[in-house]
Amino acid sequence: MISVFTNIQKTMEINQMLKRQEHFFQSQKTKDYEFRKKALLRLEYAIKKHEKEIEHALYKDLGKSCFESYMTEIGMVKSELSYIKKNLKRWMKPEQVKTPLAQFPSKSFKIKEPLGKVLIIAPWNYPILLSLQPLIGAIAAGNCSVLKPSEHAPHCANLLKKMIGEVFPSHYVAVINGGVEISEKLLEQSFDHIFYTGGEQVGKIVMEKASKHLTPVTLELGGKSPCIVEESADIKLAAKRIVFGKFLNSGQTCVAPDYIYCDSAVKDELVNELKKQIQKQYGRQPLKRKQYGKIINEKHFDRLLGLIDYKKVVVGGTANRSTLQIEPTIMDNVTFSDLVMQEEIFGPILPVLTYDFIDEAVDTIRSMAHPLALYIFTQDKC
User: Fold this and answer.
1) Quick check: 2 pLDDT over 60?
2) Of 348, 347, 354, nearest to 329 (Cα)?
3) Closest to 224 measured CA to CA, from 191, 262, 259, 195
4) How far apart are CA 320 and CA 315, in angstroms?
5) CB 312 within 8 A of CB 332
6) Region 134-156: what's the mean pLDDT?
7) Alpha-carbon Rg for the chain in angstroms
8) Phi, psi at residue 330, to the nearest 5°?
């Protein structure tokens, strides 16, 4: 009975909060340029004020160093704020366009209107960046917002609630924490736009729920992003960039290379260079480096270990359950039928596959589900 009562109470609180946001949006206050600019400045103030707390929360949730936290989250949020503040006034101006013959002799122009109430469902892998970047856009566009941080990064989620609560009233911007049940309750409500970052399966649920209200949706999903290394590529440069992009945040990046698909003629050279780069960037014992991050939780830790075929490991493979860390790991002689190729990896495991002809590689990739990103290393301009 207590659980049922709590759920009803939570639903009522969400409903009341959304009614207050609807009322505030209808007041037209969020459409004013000065209002939006001041809101962005208040958010900027909150980020600067809590910067050390943000670094600590990212370390607690993902093991990120101060350098990585600034480079991949805090610094990028600040850059986004700076860019939008610089351009907002120009973006808000009406845009004159040609008048169709049917409307002659009138004048035609476009006016950019805010949508209303926006729901932002953020992921755990970049919990500050991917919460605040879409929020900045929603504020700049003149919307009211509800931010649902990921429960898998609880230190960041709690800090976001504290930060946002200090500078914005909930009838304008609200942060709602909780697990899957809270996300479900929010998705039952009527929003004017939903911005979701995360996995494909939950993305399908978000789109299905949104369709009941005809709510437009932005889905930023992952996928098995291939990294093609063509025969003419600068192998040393390719290895350096692949290792950096793949193992940043322990591989928990939606646009990280999921696997390498390289010309069989350069495969051995590439694998050797990858080994050198891992040692150069992460040392001989990566798990003992304070700067090396961790897997978000034990569930994902176990899932990743289950993807490793130790007979094919040529680098890494060592894991520490107490710290939820897995070494940068390379698997060689992998085929598309291997377990590691059946799902998005989203961790520090890099399979290497080969092709004999570039057309073969292109046809194979085109036959698979569309990835979020694709990388190619080549010096052939054709």
Assistant:
1) no
2) 348
3) 259
4) 16
5) yes
6) 98
7) 23
8) -115, 130
Give Cα 131 distance to the centre of its chain: 9
Q: Give the pLDDT of residue 9.
A: 72
> What DSSP assignment string belongs to 119-158?
EEE--SSSTTHHHHHHHHHHHHTT-EEEEE--TTSHHHHH
194-240 pLDDT, tens digit per residue, is 999 999 999 999 999 999 999 999 999 989 999 999 999 999 999 99
Give the SS3 label for residue 160.
helix
Which residues are part of the catalytic machinery? Answer: 220, 254
Q: Is the link from the previous residue into 114 a cis peptide, with omega within 30 of 0?
A: no
Could you tell me whether strands 95-97 and 108-110 are parallel, antiparallel, or unpaired per DSSP bridges? antiparallel
Check if the beta carbon of residue 123 is closer than 8 Å to that of residue 197.
Answer: yes
Which residues lie closer than 8 Å to 195 by C-beta, 6 or more apart? 118, 119, 120, 121, 134, 138, 217, 218, 220
Tokens at 178, concatenated: 């909780």
Hunting for tokens 């390498």 — which residue is that?
260
Backbone φ and ψ of 194, nearest 5°: -125, 130
Tokens for 39, please give them. 């809101």
Paired residues of 148 in beta bridges? 121
Contacts of 12 (CB under 8 A, 6+ apart): none
The rounded distance, in Å, linking the Cα atoms of 321 and 53 is: 26
pTM comes to 0.93
